[in-house]
Amino acid sequence: MNSGQKTERTGGQMKKVIVISLRSLSLWIVFSLLLPLKPCSAAQEYILLKNAKIYTMGSNGILEPGMILIKAGKIENVGKNIDPPPGAQVLDLTGKTVIPGIVSASSSLFLSEKDRAFAGDENPDADILEGMNYFDESVPDIVRQGVTTVYISPVSFRTIGGLGAVVKLPAQERGGVEVLKEKAGLRLKLESMENNKTSSLLRLTQYQRIRDFFLQAQEYRKEWQKYEKKQSEYQEFQKDGSDKPKLKEPEKPQRDEGKEILLQAMDKKIPVRIEAHRADSILNALRLGEEFGLRIVLEKCEDWPKVLPQLKVASVSLLSNPVLDYRKSLLPGGAKGYAAGLLKAKDEDFFYSGKELSGDSPSTKSTKNWSDLGAVKIPLALIPPDNYPLSARYMRYYACVLVAQGVPEIEALKAVTSTPAEILGVSGRVGSLEEGKDADLVVLTGEPLNSLSKVEIVFVNGMKVGER
Amino acid sequence: MKMSSRKEPILLIFFLFFFLMTALSWGSEEKSGSLIIKGAKIYTSGPRGVLAEASLLIEGGKIKKIIEGSDLPAGTVVDFSGKCIAPGLVDAHTYISGYYRLLENSRVVTSDLEAFAAYDPASPEVRTALAQGITTVNLSPRNENLVGGITSIFKLRTDSLWLPLLKKEGFLKVSLCKEMEREDRPPTSLMGAEEMLNEWMQKAERNEGRTDIFSENGIVKLAKGELQPLIAASNYEEINTALKWLNDWKKRGVIVGGEEASSFSDELKKNDVAVLLSPLLLSAPERVFQNAASLFRKGVRIAFVSDMPEGEASGLRTSALLLFHQGISQDEALKTITLYPAQILGVADSVGSLEEGKDADFIVFSGEPLDLGAKVVAVYSNGRLVHKQN
User: Is A383 contained in some domain?
Assistant: First the structure.
């Protein structure tokens, strides 16, 4: 709700109130769905998990073995040894491992099938929370695999896609979602999957289009500033007396919610998530960021190794697809077109190096790339490789693939837990197992990044998934 | 004139050199002394199961002996202590390296075409597949023709001009799936396809041996029973038609695709029809994984295929992993991409498992074979290193 009030300050006064109340109404729907879950008895009493190997992903590092005390949906204590309070439910997890609930920094959840295919309009203020399909049937499958927090956003194939939010998935089937952060990102698209090979001109058009949007927003702000100045002069004049010639009341400019959102992005209040695949598009994104003072999160930026020095300077965050041999889907016509392109294209035509097609290069190149990335301390989070909602459930396997590529295990685990939580701005509540944070945790039968380990228990806000 | 006569000896030398190189690379295949792959956990996929600490003795590209314990004979030793070894993967249906060349668009029945003609060892896809441990493939014509041609089963290589064929003629590819139907030529429907296939079979039986009248030898071989059909069929109707057709003509065959095959598990088992399943995708609903597991549990012979380049080389291991998570042991899940495809293709006497006398095709993993986090350390084909982790 904070950001809602901030919009009020930047823009008009009267109409905004109505808009806010509409927005809060939509949030109320979300919370009212959640309400019947909150006073559940399980969340009220103590639960103590003991004898597990705990990857806290926070200040405590790895505890082997360690204990976690849960009360009322929060983590009360994490440590080597905790005395069980009277009446605590004690779970002996000998031989098991515990990791924080997995965070997926992107997903296509809560969108109906039409939303995923329909291009949608170009409006920055299209908020996912106002058009959610609450009864997404893939949610229980996703939670069961230990993914508890997801970023949701309208999928748009337009250049400006709308506002996303960070939500916590419900422990129970058909439970409501909890909104951890609204307006968590504004989606921009500097190039689409289909055109990134075909046309440089089209990409340039898209860049110009986005730039125009921001320039218009700047104009809009100036107009309002002018109005406010005149208005205060007018107010002054009204107070003064009446013997001077009459000053006309200034005309109020029209309010534009979309531009308000862009202004908030320019004030770094809303991070801008830019989809940019090729190195030149990434540079375009950085240029936009510099010109308008944006906080940039790059999405699906497979070409990042080529522009690492520039990324370092711009201090952006990266959201990367898992490193599968995926780039064929970037070519015109998808997989089939890829095969055609392969016969006609040379290797240089394949423009990004995050995922390699050839068998001999991925390990060398990408291992070096990953360690370079670690050295410049650019945060990297994994996101699902495609727009299918169910892809989000195997975040853990994507991290496994990263390990096979030569990334140290703990770094790969960070890329699906603490780092996405930080990038999404919800690390105060999720992403690591620390005192006072939400009791979202996953109990596994073995090492978290051995894909043979099975998810045994998932807790969301201290409640066991699938338990009534 | 002068120029050309001067060129001739150069050409001759070039050709001599060329033949010499070919002969040399061929020779090295056969002779190479004994190689010992030391100390690893070996998933044999064969009758010996999983061996905790064993070594492989390799001679002439074949496994001479699997040695348990530390008593090793003399020879070149490669130490893989602490690693896991699994058989080279067998991909029973792929369009690797020749996707566009595996379709002859001029006719709808092209039963004489041989898939290996479309193979290109220099394609980057071959390196990708080897890096994932795929050593044997069944290269198949595409699904767009009713009868696409004859599949070829061979070993993947990048370094040699010699194509190590296991079976030049594997199966006759028959397609009953959606891609086969087209508006501008018959068949335009599944019914039409079945009818057309029957007509071709009848013609082949009538005109057998008269190549002047009937030149579709693939279909003649199918009618005689010299070739088995590999029938692309994914959904319920297609599989139903395929099974009915096999029954009508009293033929043995294999189904590829098989997404809805679990509805026919009893019939598939009764008629001993094997199913080559499309790779399980991480984005697919749980039901798809359950169907695959139920086929397996009911005793239908199944194997996963990659469908490269439509699918990914990593699809084989991912599919086996997802089967494992349906409650099937890792050893058995691994067999769906090693031994079982080799058996279905009829090449299990040389590949598919690590047994004495079989080809030395294997993968060295840094961890368990179905752990996606395990690195592929090395891949050997016929006792030769074909991929190494950098």
Answer: yes
Q: How far is B41 from chain A (nearest CA, A)?
A: 16
Radius of gyration for chain B, computed over Cα atoms and rounded to the nearest angstrom: 22
Report the distance separating Cα A271 and Cα A187, nearest Å: 9
Q: In chain A, which residues have their Cβ closer than 8 Å to the Cβ of B390?
A: 360, 363-364
Total residue count of chain B as it appears in this document: 390
Q: Do A342 and B99 touch (CB under 8 A)?
A: yes
Q: Check: CB of residue B174 under 8 Å from CB of residue B229.
A: yes
Contact residues, chain A, for B132 at CB < 8 Å: 359
Mean pLDDT of chain A: 78
Residue A20 lies in a domain: no
Measure in Å the smallest separation between the Cα of A390 and chain B Cα atoms.
5
- DSSP class of residue A212 equals H
Single-letter residue type at A19: V
A136: in domain: yes
Contact between A451 and B372 using a beta-carbon 8 Å cutoff: yes
The residues that bridge with B55 in the sheet, in sequence order, are B67
At B385, is the pLDDT very low, low, confident or very high (cuts 50, 70, 90)?
very high
Q: Which domain holds residue A289?
A: 102-426
Between helices A14-34 and A2-10, what is the axis angle to 10°?
170
Q: What class, spelled out in words, does domain B89-351 have in CATH?
A: alpha beta
CA dist list (Å): A419 to A159, A168, A293, B33: 27, 16, 23, 52
CATH topology of domain B30-87+354-390: Urease, subunit C; domain 1 (2.30.40)
What residues have CB less than 8 Å from B159, skipping those under 6 apart?
B25, B386
**Domain total for chain A?**
1
Pairing of strands B152-155, B134-139: antiparallel
CATH of the domain at A375: 3.20.20.140
**B328 → chain A, closest CA residue:** A452
Residues facing A317 on adjacent strands: A297
Distance (Å, rounded) from C-alpha B153 to C-alpha B169? 7
DSSP assigned state of A84: P
Q: How far is B317 from chain A (nearest CA, A)?
A: 11
Cα Rg, chain A, nearest whole Å: 24
A388 in contact with chain B, both atoms CB, cutoff 8 A = yes
What one-character-per-residue DSSP string does B231-264 give?
A: EEE-SHHHHHHHHHHHHHTT---EEEE-TTGGGG
Smallest CA–CA separation between A448 and chain B, in Å? 10
pTM (whole model) above 0.90: no
A368 interfaces chain B, CB cutoff of 8 Å:
no
Per-residue pLDDT reduced to its tens digit, B42-69? 999 999 999 999 999 999 999 999 999 8
- Our measurement of the distance from residue A139's CA atom to the centroid of its chain's CA atoms, rounded to an integer in Å, reads 17
Let me know: does A323 contact A185? Beta carbons within 8 Å.
no
* Domain segments of chain B as ranges: 30-87+354-390, 89-351
A245 cis-preceded (ω within 30 degrees of 0):
no
Do the beta carbons of residue B291 and residue B262 sit within 8 Å? yes
In-domain check, residue A31: no
* Per-residue model confidence as pLDDT tens digits over A180-231: 999 999 988 887 554 444 456 777 888 898 999 999 999 999 999 999 999 9
